[in-house]
Design goal:
alpha/beta, Spore Coat Polysaccharide Biosynthesis Protein SpsA, Chain A, eight-stranded mixed β-sheet, two-stranded antiparallel sheet, 7 helices, globular
Length: 193
């Protein structure tokens, strides 16, 4: 089984307001991410929440998913959110899809390409790539979770990927949407539909 770990615990300090709750078309940023995952056939979804937890839970109340609280959300480190998310996944999960909660531009077709690549290639890590730049979301096999869970700052997920470069299968895509997330008001204005 493939489970998604959706990272939605940050404080949105550079945005100046809770970016997960910003309007995105007729929905919100985080709802668009969840809807895209569901459209891609991912039905085991774990959303890691933090500072804006009550509001994020409220907007997602109509979706079948699980919430995981990152007690260290204030540190602003993505690594801690991935770690608590992986620790909460059910035993039957074979691989985790690491998803940015502030990347509403992700496309269901690309998510499906990533999961299909994993199922066919049996590589331990599957990462989308646009013009030789790694993006999100990416998959990591359960056999490598202990390595992520045991990482300590200043080590990062980027270090993990560099250390496991030979275990990565890249999915070349023709859109830079895999590189885009929403950190600042400028990002939001530039990318919003």
């Amino acid at each position: 089984m493939i489970s998604a770990v959706v990272l939605a615990a940050g404080l949105s300090s550079r945005m100046g307001k809770p970016k997960m709750l910003l309007p995105w078309g007729k929905t919100t940023v985080i709802e668009k991410v969840i809807a895209t995952l569901a459209d891609a056939g991912i039905d085991s979804i774990y959303v890691v929440v933090g500072g804006n937890s009550p509001d994020v839970k409220k907007v997602l109340s109509g979706y079948a998913l699980n919430f995981v609280l990152n007690p260290d959300y204030a540190s602003g480190e993505m690594l801690s959110s991935v770690q608590v998310g992986l620790l909460r996944l059910p035993k039957e999960t074979e691989t985790a899809l690491i998803v940015l909660g502030d990347q509403p531009q992700i496309e269901a077709t690309i998510v499906r390409e990533i999961t299909e690549n994993y199922l066919q290639s049996k590589e331990k890590i599957v990462v989308p790539s646009y013009q030789r730049h790694r993006g999100h979301p990416w998959l990591v096999d359960g056999s490598l979770w202990p390595e992520i869970i045991n990482l300590q700052p200043p080590s990062t997920l980027r270090d993990f990927l560099i250390n496991n470069e030979r275990k990565i299968s890249y999915v070349e895509v023709d859109t830079d949407s895999i590189l885009q997330d929403l950190d600042t008001p400028h990002d939001y204005q530039q990318h919003k539909p």
